[in-house]
């Protein structure tokens, strides 16, 4: 069963499932303590709590269409709060669960938020909450850190369900999603109800999803990728959403969900791959996969251990992924579909279709999306998921759209004869060497990442004769380095550098690889919440050391921080 074809908002969709499949399971949420403490909600139960919270929000008599902020890791209450805010006639402002206090303060103040939902958060909340205004009213989810806020369960116990929710026009603003702030102040993209619903409908049609599918939600819901592919998609197609408890329980959470479709980001896909190689060396695995009688057994065993043996397909987004990684998963029988989109179009832009994926390409645009390249090769996109504009920033809005309504992505690309798009770099990331040659770092970083020794990397070299790479070692390699076992790492990296340079034109060949043994994380500012590198932070940290590294004249040098 699918939602009514006339559903113009995600609110219409959830009302549909509440009415037609009230006893079907919607949420499965670990409440701490593993399998012994897992809570489920049917559509009826989830909507009952949502309506009660909406009733409370209405009782506050806030001005119509007020902004209400929400900071939490993914959980059932995140989704219920989002819907309750809409039902009460207001606008949701998600805040990433890992941000500095000044960005938290900026987001709350710039968005003019009147209330804050506080949920499942790490100890980093001790720092983040310093950015919350002292007079800001807060509501705490059941999984929130210890606090003195009004409690979700107390509020829903005291209020009756809202029976006449505010009717929302599809053209109205539903949410303001702030960019991750990797450069400068975050900008708030205003997204309408229509943009969110149309995008979910288009994704479901492309992947042929139904209420029989299952998905695990664990990437930040404050980011459009997860809110589009998991939350909005589940509301449209009506399938159950499972939530992850923590990184430590992730495999158990995956196995509980047995997802039929699974979404991740390149860094995690590569970590999963490295985990497989840790248990079975790559050369041995490749040999086994070539033996007809064993091939099927080995594939099934690996996918079952990953919790992906029920996945019809899987997705990768947020950043480019090496085509070799896609091909590797394909060799296991898992179709890894790369997609592409921006905060500014609710990530509704491009996706590879099952059976038609071309590794290295993010696919064609959705049927109702248009794309083209500017004279300089910049990718321009016109999508029904497009934002209404940047909140309180009409100048920036105007600057980011062409006169004929295409969004300027800032990415460079190529389009093949099947209308599939390849991202070749980011215009603002390109830098010029002292020889006057331009270098696009992203494609080189993709090549570098295709090594069991490397978990993440940066290519830099502005003003130097040749570019260079800074690499963050994989978990096992960091452990080796910590024990002083560096000779094997150096030999492997030098061989990998030689292999990568053989594929690059002369002006892009890397002079050396610098090894950063510390871990790059969102918590220490080296990565965005969706695991993309923060170039400015990395350049600031490692750039001043480049002169010394060049003088060493070695293929592999070590950062001694």
What fraction of residues sit in β-strands? 15-25%
**Overall average pLDDT:** 90
Total helical segments: 19
Q: What global shape is seen?
A: globular
Describe the structure.
With 561 residues, the protein is an alpha/beta fold. The chain folds into 3 domains: 10-241, Rossmann fold (3-Layer(aba) Sandwich), CATH 3.40.50.980; 261-309 and 311-427, ANL, N-terminal domain (Rossmann fold), CATH 3.40.50.12780; 430-558, GMP Synthetase, Chain A, domain 3 (2-Layer Sandwich), CATH 3.30.300. It is 35% helix and 20% strand. α2 crosses α3 (76-87). The longest helix has 17 residues, at 43-59. It is globular. The N and C termini lie far apart (57 Å).
Descriptive terms for the model:
561 residues, alpha/beta, Rossmann fold, GMP Synthetase, Chain A, domain 3, 3 domains
List the helices and strands and how they pair.
Elements (H helix, E strand, L loop, with lengths): L9 H11 L4 E6 L7 E5 H17 L7 E5 L4 H12 L3 E5 L5 H11 L1 E6 L6 H4 L9 E3 L9 E2 H7 L14 E6 L9 E5 H15 L7 E3 L6 H14 L3 E3 L6 H8 L3 E4 L1 H14 L2 H7 L3 H15 L6 E4 L6 H9 L4 E5 L9 E2 L18 E4 L4 E5 L6 E2 L3 H6 L7 E9 L5 E6 L4 E2 L5 E2 L1 H9 L4 E7 L7 E6 L1 H8 L4 H16 L10 E4 L18 H8 L3 H7 L3 E3 L3
Parallel strand pairs: 1-11, 3-4, 3-5, 5-6, 6-7, 10-11, 12-13, 13-14, 24-25, 25-26
Antiparallel strand pairs: 1-2, 8-9, 9-18, 14-15, 16-17, 17-19, 19-20, 21-22, 23-24
Helix pairs in contact: 1-8, 2-3, 2-6, 7-8
